[in-house]
Amino acid sequence: xxxxxxxxxxxxxxxxxxxxxxxxxxxxxxxxxxxxxxxxxxxxxxxxxxxxxxxxxxxxxxxxxxxxxxxxxxxxxxxxxxxxxxxxxxxxxxxxxxxxxxxxxxxxxxxxxxxxxxxxxxxxxxxxxxxxxxxxxxxxxxxxxxxxxxxxxxxxxxxxxxxxxxxxxxxxxxxxxxxxxxxxxxxxxxxxxxxxxxxxxxxxxxxxxxxxxxxxxxxxxxxxxxxxxxxxxxxxxxxxxxxxxxxxxxxxxxxxxxxxxxxxxxxxxxxxxxxxxxxxxxxxxxxxxxxxxxxxxxxxxxxxxxxxxxxxxxxxxxxxxxxxxxxxxxxxxxxxxxxxxxxxxxxxxxxxxxxxxxxxxxxxxxxxxxxxxxxxxxxxxxxxxxxxxxxxxxxxxxxxxxxxxxxxxxxxxxxxxxxxxxxxxxxxxxxxxxxxxxxxxxxxxxxxxxxxxxxxxxxxxxxxxxxxxxxxxxxxxxxxxxxxxxxxxxxxxxxxxxxxxxxxxxxxx
Length: 509
Prior knowledge:
This protein is an alpha+beta fold. Helices cover 59% and strands 13% of the residues. It has a 5-stranded mixed sheet, covered by helices on one side. Helix 1 (3-92) packs across helix 4, helix 9 packs parallel to helix 10 (388-404) and helix 10 (388-404) packs antiparallel against helix 12 (466-476). It is rod-shaped.
């Protein structure tokens, strides 16, 4: 699959997941805002109802004080009305005359007039009673308006009564959360509060408030109500959306991981292809040379010349060594993949001695090209617990690369140093004056099959396994290796290994 197609699919999938997550988050935000709005509306409705009930409760207080007066006034008025009615009935009752000549029509007319007069007087009496009682009620109302603001707040708004009213109204509006409240005076100064109430001026908490006794002519008092579990309640009401967000996020992570693995596998495939091409070239050259030398040995004229025989045998020997060296590289790859490290044989060795022997071996190569290798083995304590053969290969690979990656027409100059690093480690540095390494390549030089020169270019021989092998071995030895470079000027590899006192004999793959 082409990289362009992979990038296109990745962009489409990323856009799809991003849009899906965006709409889910927007939906969640809208749901939370809607729940908050509904909750606030129910709470404010409950607050206004509770305040109205508190005002009615205060009115009842004054009415209870004056009810005796109203009852007394009502009894006196009823007695007066009864006396008036009795007198009217006595004075307006028809007189029975002994004269039998008065007609029945005259009697009926007089009786009707008497009833009409009695009804008129009764209506006037009721009107007077109503006006009197209305006056008393107006006096009670004026007393409430005049005296209520002068009562102490504790008497007008008892905390127990307020809590009872609030609880009733909140339950009626579907709010069953625990709450705390406080009553404040002028400038919102807290006069009293229930346990657990947090001052909204000191801490940013959701609080609902309204005016106490708004119709009494005094609006200096306010009531504040808080719900400690409000946020938990609101989010619990929309928690069914959270699993969808989680699953979408998991799918996005899996998608990203899949894309990364696809690119990793594609790069690995390209590196393996490059490895096979390089391996074919590396094996083909010495095999062809050995084959050609063998054919020349079959020539009778060559057999008569001792010098030619010596030269051909030397070529065969050199190419055989070269071929064996390349085979060892492939075996190093097998060691790289060996997770158990069972083939390693750990022992206590002196790093300075091993480096000294390996450097002497490479001095001939450097001097052949007119170069030099300096050694500064200054580490006082150089005893390390490791596999001697593989550590020798590590130093061998680093020195071999330093000589191999030289600038044309430039004599190699290598500097190898050891020194104490802290109290429990030794530091090894191998520096060259070669072509250097680009910054982007410097991050990947320890990857398996990676080579700065890839494809079918063979200006530098190799399989891209040497530094990967070096990294693997140093890690097994519980050390670290880093590389520094300035492209076109120099490169330096730095190895730090624990000394034998703290090194563990266990092998870690």
